[in-house]
From TrEMBL:
PANTHER family: PROLYL ENDOPEPTIDASE. InterPro entries: Pept_S9A_N, Prolyl_oligopep/macrocyclase. One of its GO terms (cellular component) is cytosol. It comes from Bactrocera latifrons (Malaysian fruit fly). It comes from the Eukaryota. This is Prolyl endopeptidase. The lineage of its organism: Eukaryota, Metazoa, Ecdysozoa, Arthropoda, Hexapoda. GO terms for molecular function: oligopeptidase activity; serine-type endopeptidase activity. Pfam families: Peptidase_S9_N. Residues 22-250 form the Peptidase S9A N-terminal domain.
Amino acid sequence: MFLSLCFLRRGYSNLIYKMQYPIARKDFSYVDKFHGVELFDVYRWLEDPNADETQIFIEKQNEISRKFIEEGSDRYRIEKKLTKLWNYPKYSCPTKHGDYYYFYINTGLQNHNVLFQQKHLVDEPKAFLDPNTWSEDGTIALSQKTFSEDGNYMAYGISENGSDWLKIKIRNVKSGEDLKETLENVKFSGISWTLDNKGFFYAKYDQDECANGAEVKQNENQKLYYHYVGKQQNEDILVAEFPEEPSWRIMYRALGYSTSSTPKYRQNIRLGGV
């Protein structure tokens, strides 16, 4: 509310009246029928982000936004104030996995928090995983991380451009090096290690998709796999699939139990429609 009032007070209202908003044509060829009633979806053509007509419409909208923002006298004052407010060191609480403690540090204006590692709380911490080195503009991010039960490995997800599609990599915590395998086509998935530390469960789709955050197609037939550490993705074991319900997503976790000296596992699987 404060920013809105500030814009109007500084003369932004004059810019609003100058706007030439692009006209979106109506296409009556798309008709859906719900409960016996026909409904025209006249703007469905805009749902294809890669169509030339959609790109032109988006660019015209961006021209309005750029003109509004760049001509405003308050823009840099607000940016300077927000930068000052955000520019302070930030720390997370440490958590212990295996022999090491881990916590995040952000020096102030870094795009991403840096994960640090230390053997003892009094030791000098060292950077263990720094997502800021993955891209110059900060568009590649750490989406999740999960340590093995013994803490010797960390599986982590990488997301590009805000996309839900992930790549999973595995890091050896002692060497700080990533293993050779990379798991792709992962989406709406957790990482659930088994108690023997040999691998983990994850969910993926068979189809390839772009990872620019602009995909609009509904993904179908998610499958649950088990990955052995050190093996390639094409060797992963298919655990569960539900082809009769293509829109289901698989929610799961590994539950370990033992009746002897050998641990056994069962999957607690929950299913939900999209």
